[in-house]
Design a protein that fits this description.
The chain has a 4-stranded mixed beta sheet with strand order 1-4-3-5. It starts with a helix and ends in a 17-residue tail after the last strand. The chain has one domain: Hypothetical protein apc22750. Chain B (Translation Initiation Factor IF3). The chain has about 300 residues and is an alpha+beta fold. Strand 7 and strand 8 form a beta hairpin. It is built from 7 helices and 8 strands; from the N terminus they run ααααββαβββαβαββ. The protein is globular. The longest helix is centred in the middle third of the chain and has 24 residues.
Amino acid sequence: MTRQDQAAGAPREPGADAALEAEIAESLRRVESGGIPLNAERRLKELQTDSGSFTSDLSVSGFALCHQLGLQVLSQVMGSSIYQMGYQPSTGWMMGGSMLTELSAISEAWNEVRRLALNRLEQEATHAGADAVIGVQVRTGAHDFAQGAIEYVVVGTAVRRKDAKPNASPVLTELSVADYANLKRAGIEPVGIVAWTSVFFSAYGNNWMLEPSYMPGQNYELREFTQGVYAAREQTMERLGLQAQQLGATGIVGVRIGHTVRRQEVSSGPNAQQRGGVVITFDAIGTAVREHTGVQQQSPKTTVDLSI
């Protein structure tokens, strides 16, 4: 029975409900192990044999440039994960504890939800027969249906070189088609996406009750918070460098940095005094690249716009 027949209210075939339940159970099992649902895998595999139309988020100029580069556009691909953050203990934040502490449970949650989403993006690209995914976009957010849950979604366009066999591990990049083409011409090969998030808590210094509102008319730097931003940044960039080394990269391009600072009060128990400070979240994502030696650089061409 086709899906159209089901939608029209046609009688269901015997055993159809059991087959559907079995497929749902198998899809859930795959998601639990970091995979993608069966229907998504089935649709993407059909793209390799079906002559139907494809979807992509490429612009008209980007799509035309793909043809010039010999890249076959296969499909829009996606990776998604909704993740529950674990409990972050507050022991050690109070007086006598460290003024600067990484909130490891929150850091780990953001890095794991990203890893799951990127892995699923790579799986979709593999099932589509892609060599690479270009123009990867990141969307994050929180939901009210689960307190403390975060969502990470990555979307891109799967492509394949017409003269190459599908790669077992498609290369993920945040690069636009134009940037991808420029790197190729320069003899630089994208090798994958690198990313990390670090979350730190920085407490008020000196007197834990001290806040700017109690010192009117005086300018001063909140040095504890400045130090916290630097600590989060240095850890994030260090992890990016380690990931790039593991991929055999010589550098990282197109790095996008984001950070937030929000006020937070914590305590070590229901009857304990609260301590004020800020939670600093610092994240970075970019494309690792590897330069090839012996590639002749193309000279730039001068273009004069006569349309004005």
